[in-house]
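Support request from a user on the community tier.

User writes: "When I paste my structure tokens into the form, the page sometimes reloads and wipes my input. The last time it worked, I copied everything first. Here is what I submitted, just in case something in the input itself triggers the reload:"
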């Protein structure tokens, strides 16, 4: 009985142990020596959900470990990307974690060694707090997306949604039967792209535009962010919609 209890406890401890989820190698601190970069976490039994996701850096020169906790440290499919976002000739660290929410949102962080210290230079919470929008349906089969931060407006043509969809919300002359407000979801994709092919990556951010409900997708707001020496600033922005049948 005692052995069985010990065996059960051992199995339970084994299930919840900290493991390495993914790893990369790169010169993080710019000293010319490769460093090891890991994401460690605790696996949830019988689930793809990871808890206590932590960034760990093992310095190549000293073999010392640096543990970097993240505010949002639970989720699915945590991934690492190493590349130069700042132009400082070292590899910066991009971490992306799926939240598992209905809107397909993510947690995302970029870490960089600046002035000898590891700094968080991008986080999804700050991005979501800055890039806010209003979405309003209008007469004649259109939707308006207003960017509060950039003071820009985008007009979406909704005719691609089809007659059945449009007839539910518009009358025969294209006037709304009732006011409808949509919304723009939090960050749902963040991708490193070297647009200028100069070895320095930009960030391409995606936010889903929702109509009457989350599954009623109207398209995506796409924002290209470029490091300006102090922060990631918008380099360009556009709205992409889905195509309809001809």
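"...and here is what came back when it finally went through:"
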């Amino acid at each position: 009985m005692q052995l069985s209890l010990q065996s059960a406890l051992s199995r339970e401890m084994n299930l919840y142990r900290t493991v390495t989820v993914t790893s990369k190698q790169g010169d993080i601190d710019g000293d010319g020596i490769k460093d090891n970069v890991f994401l460690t976490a605790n696996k949830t039994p019988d689930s793809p959900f990871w808890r206590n996701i932590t960034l760990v850096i093992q310095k190549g020169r000293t073999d010392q470990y640096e543990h970097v906790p993240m505010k949002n440290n639970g989720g699915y499919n945590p991934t690492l990307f190493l590349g130069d976002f700042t132009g400082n000739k070292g590899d910066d660290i991009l971490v992306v974690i799926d939240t598992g929410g209905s809107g397909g949102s993510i947690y995302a962080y970029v870490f960089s060694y600046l002035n000898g210290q590891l700094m968080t230079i991008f986080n999804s919470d700050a991005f979501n707090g800055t890039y806010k929008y209003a979405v309003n349906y209008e007469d004649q089969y259109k939707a308006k997306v207003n960017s509060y931060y950039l003071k820009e407006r985008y007009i979406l043509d909704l005719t691609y949604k089809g007659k059945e969809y449009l007839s539910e919300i518009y009358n025969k002359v294209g006037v709304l039967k009732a006011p409808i407000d949509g919304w723009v979801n939090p960050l749902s994709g963040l991708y490193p792209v070297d647009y200028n092919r100069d070895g320095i990556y930009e960030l391409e951010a995606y936010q889903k535009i929702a109509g009457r409900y989350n599954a009623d997708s109207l398209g995506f707001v796409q924002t290209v962010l470029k490091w300006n020496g102090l922060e990631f600033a918008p380099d360009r922005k556009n709205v992409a919609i889905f195509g309809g049948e001809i």
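Agent notes: The reload is a front-end session timeout and is unrelated to the input. The CA atoms of residues 204 and 224 lie 4 Å apart. The first strand starts at residue 18 and ends at 26. Escalated to web team.
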